[in-house]
Amino acid sequence: METLKDISTLEDIKQMVDTFYGNVRKDDLIGPIFNDKLQDRWSEHLQKMYNFWQTILFDVRAYSGTPFPPHKHLPVDQTHFDRWIQIFNTTIDAQFAGVITEEAKMRATNMAFMFSHKIEYFRNAENH
Fold this sequence. Notes:
Keywords: Heme, Iron, Metal-binding, Transport. This protein is mostly helical. 67% of the residues lie in helices and 0% in strands.
């Protein structure tokens, strides 16, 4: 069996992001939401994700901005976030292994949890 290397370069991040979002786009549950929202702006989104993950994993100031607002009004619930995490972890585990890989999975899980709760909070606030 091949030993997987850890995420250590920008090229690794690009591979991780491209493969992950390739899997997302094909997914029956979350693919249509991403494809509808991004339409012909996938390359722009992927570039943002390369920058985001460089900042998160390598402490390189490549990303600036606030990631939550574009997600605030998406038609998603916990089921969608669970699928997102499942695809993320499966995708990354098939390509990489190591400390930074585990950090990426932990960060993604924390982000999904936070986004899910914030979306629920804003929905509840808007309905009162």
